[in-house]
Amino acid sequence: MIDGPYFILTVLGVLGTGLVAGVFCGFSTFVMRGLAALPPAQGVAAMNAINTAAVTPAFMILFLGTAVLAAVIAVVTFVRWPDEGAVELLLGSALHLFGSFGVTAAANVPRNTALLRLEPGSAQAAAHWPTYIREWTAWNHVRTVASAAAAVAYVLALA
Fold first, then answer.
1. Total number of domains in the chain
2. What is the 3-state secondary structure (H, E, C) of the chain?
3. pTM for the whole thing?
4. pLDDT digit of tens for each residue in the chain (159 aa)?
5. Enclosing domain of residue 68
6. Residues 24, 28, 33, 38: what is their CA dihedral angle, to the nearest 10 degrees?
């Protein structure tokens, strides 16, 4: 069984990945649907406001801190290679680092940046909005599943 500081790291990994999955799940299940129901100018303005407001210390500590924690868990697992749970720990870390953090950096943030450059009431924003909603939400589903699966993998490492 995993014990000591390694146990604490893993429990924090479960908590962090679970909370991140919850944030992403909220966006996938109702926030993006609500924004899509708005006229494009209002939807673009609201999403830009959300993206700006998301960069708060609380969320960034959760999001970036969980990514750092996943990396630490992976490194410690390689160095210590525990008798139990090593595969689950590495899988959880990989899922979160690539499927959550990596997808955010490679897919969601560039879309947010491009949306922020558009004037909400412009024809260009109105034309771009349906594509943004569809693509951003699809990638957000990936982040949601990856973060939740990472939490499950960490829990299995503790079992």
1. 1
2. CCCHHHHHHHHHHHHHHHHHHHHHHHHHHHHHHHHHCCCHHHHHHHHHHHHHHHCCHHHHHHHHHHHHHHHHHHHHHHHHCCCCCHHHHHHHHHHHHHHHHHHHHHHHHHHHHHHHCCCCCCHHHHHHHHHHHHHHHHHHHHHHHHHHHHHHHHHHHHC
3. 0.94
4. 788 888 999 999 999 999 999 999 999 999 999 999 999 999 999 999 999 999 999 999 999 999 999 999 999 999 988 888 999 999 999 999 999 999 999 999 999 999 999 999 999 999 999 999 999 999 999 999 999 999 999 999 999
5. 4-158
6. 30
Rounded Cα gap, residues 150 and 76, in angstroms: 17
Q: How far is the C-alpha of 39 from the C-alpha of 116, rounded, in Å?
A: 17
C-alpha span between 47 and 26 (Å, rounded): 14
